[in-house]
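Subject: 4-diphosphocytidyl-2-C-methyl-D-erythritol kinase structure
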Amino acid sequence: MPEEGLAEAFGVTEEARAKINLALHVTGQRADSYHLLDMLVTFADCGDRLGFLPSQADTFTLSGRFGETLADDGGTNLVLRARDLLREAVGPLAFPVHIHLQKNLPIASGIGGGSADAAATLRGLMRLWGMSLPVEALATLSLKLGADVPMCLESRPLIARGIGEQIEAVPELPAFAIVLANPLKGVSTPEVFRRLPAKNNPPLNLASNLAGTADWLAAIGIARNDLEPPARELVPEISAISAMLQARGALLTRMSGSGATCFGIFTTMAAAQEAVTTLHGERPDWYFQATETVSGGA
C-alpha cells in the first residue's frame, strides 16, 4: 500500500519512529540474566507506519520495502502480540480490527523497529477502541512485549536505565540531521552480549548544563556504545559503513543498539541527503536514509 494512501484507507494511523541509541552503556547483569543498561535515546522522523480499521475479523496485512521479511512471522510478530495483550486488558471493548503495517525499516537492525511497531499498535488500538489504560498498567503491559517498548511508547528524547524501564525525559536534547545506514546483514543480539569483555562498565554521566548542539555532540562523543566492538567482530561491514559515513562528512558516527544500523550526525539535512545520494551510488544494495531526529522540546 502506498504511504500516501494509508491515512485515506484506515481510520486511525500511527507512526512507529526509528529509535536511535546515541549512547548505550552496559553497567551490569541481573541474576535473571537481563543486562543493566544506561542509554541516551532519541527518535528519528522516519520509520514504519500502521493503520487501524474496524473489521468483521482480525486481519493483519503488510506492505513496504521490508514487508515480505515479516510475511511468515505469524504469531511471533510484535504487532499481533501487542494487539492480543491489549485485548486481554480491556475485554469486550476490543472489537475485531484490521491492522496494516507498512514496514519501512530493516528487520532486527538495532533501531527498535519491532518495538516501535508494538508501541504504535498500543497507541493506535487505544484510539480506535476509544479507551485508555492507567499509566502504570500500560507500562507493565508494554514491558511484557520487550524492554524497548516503554521507550517507544514515549517516542521522544530520553534516558533509560535498568533494563530500559526506568525512563527520564531529556527536553534539552536538540534535533540532529542524521543518516541511518545498514548493510542489511543480521547480527545476533545474544551473541553480541556474550562477547562483551566486561558487564560492569562505567555508567552514563551527562553534564547538567549542556546547552546547544555543540555541547551535546561533545557529550555524546565522550559516551559510547559498549555493544559496538563485539558487533564489529561479528559483522565487519559495521566498520566499513561507519568509515563511509565519516568519509562523507559525518561529525560523529556510532552504531545504534546491538546493530547493525549505524548513524552519522551531519551539519544540515542538505548535507545528510547529499551523503545518502553518494552512499546509494556506492552500495545500492545497502540501506541508507537521511532523516532528522525529534527535539526534546517538541
